[in-house]
Amino acid sequence: MFLLSTVKFLGGPLAGASMGLNFWSTMGLTVAGMMTSVFIFSGIGRVWMQHRQKQRRLRRAPIFTKRSRNIIKVFRKFGMGGIAFLTPVLLSPIGGTVIATLLGVPRQRILLHMLWSAVLWGGALTFASVHFGHMIGH
After folding, report:
1. pLDDT of residue 135
2. Which of 58, 74, 87, 109 is least crowded, fewest Cβ atoms below 10 Å from its Cβ?
3. Cβ atoms of residues 29 and 36 within 8 Å
4. pLDDT, tens only, 66-117
5. Is the pLDDT of residue 61 over 80?
6. What is the three-class DSSP state of 61?
7. pTM
8. Residues 71, 118, 68, CA angle at the centre, nearest 5°?
9. How many CB atoms lie within 10 A of CB 4?
């Protein structure tokens, strides 16, 4: 469950509920998984994106896609808080961190904003999974 949360945040609460873990265990492992990913990729985000840009150039793919334009709009309008808020539900922890790094957000701010977002969404999604997960199986 911890490893699943490093890649896809929503998977943590669902896995925890399906394994029968309690609220606090599930939320703790989910938040820890996301923050581990954020910590690692906030350090290597620039290198990762340079690699991805090189691959894109070799494929001659467009630099700005509809998705990248929308991300930049969110960042301009809501700042790092907007990116952090959307990361667990729309982006992956890795994707949101790399985007924030590319947009020039300092690592400390990335960690702070991703932490409150992970706690907020971790609590909400874990609550929903633990208390309403039984309805999905029937």
Report:
1. 66
2. 58
3. no
4. 877 888 888 889 999 999 999 999 889 998 998 898 888 999 999 999 999 9
5. no
6. coil
7. 0.81
8. 10
9. 18
- For residues 103 and 124, what is the distance between their CA atoms, to the nearest angstrom? 28
What's the token pair of residue 44?
A: 């290597």
Alpha carbon 18 to chain centroid distance?
21
Cα–Cα distance for residue pair 7/93, rounded to 1 Å: 6
Collect contacts of 40-44 with beta carbons under 8 A, ≥24 apart: 41/93, 41/94, 41/97, 41/98, 41/101, 42/97, 42/100, 42/101, 42/107, 42/110, 42/111, 43/107
Q: What six digits make up the tokens of 80? A: 């790092």
Distance, first Cα to last Cα, the chain: 23
Spatial separation of the C-alpha atoms in residues 15 and 59, rounded to whole Å: 37
pLDDT digits (tens, 9 = 90+) for 8-21: 999 999 999 889 89
